[in-house]
Amino acid sequence: MSEAEVLAVARRLDLRRKAGFVLTAVAVVFAAVIAFQFLPSASEHLGWGEVLTFGGAAILFLAAGIGLVVTARLPAEAKTERITMLRAERQQAVRRVAFLFMPVSLFLLLMGTLRAADATLDGKPIRSVDLFTTTAFIIFLVLFALLIAGLGVPRSFRSVIDDELSRELRRKALVFGYAIVLPGLAALFVVALVSRTLAIELMPVLAALGVAGPAVRLSLLERAAAADPDEG
Amino acid sequence: MIAFTLRNRLKDVRAELGLTQMELAFRVGVSRKTINTVENGVFTPSTTLALALAATLGRTVEQLFYLEPANA
Q: Is any Cβ of chain A less than 8 angstroms from the Cβ of B59?
């Protein structure tokens, strides 16, 4: 196989693995929907028919997801140093775009989290959808922060995605995050002196900004570093 | 103290040897963007990376990197 063919095969297998992870994540979401029904604090419950449907879907998605991941093993030709490096360069470009989408997903979850905080502060009972959205928001925040910090990079891709320039760019992005969060915390304290309710409602906003800011900054820094390529 | 700016001849030497940024990156074991930013003077490499670049290109570090007075 030529280098281009090996790369195409590796790309297909990478896509299959990613589809497997997505299906597994969907299975986890279905399982979480069921689990939240059984929380004593949940104010609404699904019928058994719905629980069984969600449960069945969770099992199906999980089986399909694991199946796709297991069958997406790379052939030996795709594991050479050169092909691995070319794949890592491509992976880096994908990560750059993914960093730009992080604020969008955080913003969507933030809306639900704010609604949940608002309802709780008004003394309304906690709905399972509120618990679910808030939990998802926190999980996404932590996950995104870890990704920005450079965790989750496959070992074979580290020479490209975790080289000294990448670490320097990540450091700059994280410093940007601190520059948002630290004064933000001080401001939140001042707000809390005036209105505790408002301070509580602003907490998730600050947390989202503290992660979304560095994500965008890192993406832009990476883009600038890769710009003006001289392939000659 | 005189202020200096770090300059380099990385791009010229690489072109002399007929290497692309990607090929040099592969040989040194870093990303292409690292080579790109070092060549453009945006990123100052560590001593380790400077030595690795010099060794890969068959030059000394002084042949690749030099200091220029900041006002020059």
A: no
Contact A217, A173 (CB under 8 A): yes
Interface predicted TM-score (ipTM) of this complex, two decimals? 0.84
Q: What is the pLDDT of residue A232?
A: 42
Predicted confidence (pLDDT) per residue in A58-82, tens digit? 999 999 999 999 998 888 888 888 8
Taking the CA of residue A73 and the nearest CA in chain B, the distance in Å comes to 24
Query: What is A154-218 written as a DSSP string?
Result: -GGGHHHHTSHHHHHHHHHHHHHHHHHHHHHHHHHHHHHHH-HHHHHHHHHHHHHHHHHHHHHHH
Q: Are the beta carbons of A164 and B39 separated by less than 8 Å?
A: no
The Cα A88–Cα A106 span in angstroms is 26
Alpha carbon of B19: minimum distance to chain A alpha carbons (Å)? 7
A69 & A105 share domain: no
3-class secondary structure per residue, chain B: CCCEEEEECHHHHHHHCCCCHHHHHHHHCCCHHHHHHHHCCCCCCCHHHHHHHHHHHCCCHHHHEEEEECCC
Provide the CATH number for the domain around residue B53.
Answer: 1.10.260.40
Q: Is B22 on the interface with A (CB under 8 A)?
A: yes
- Residues A99 and A219: beta-carbon distance below 8 Å: yes
Find the closest chain B residue to A231 by CA distance.
B20
Look up the domain containing A229 and give its range.
88-232
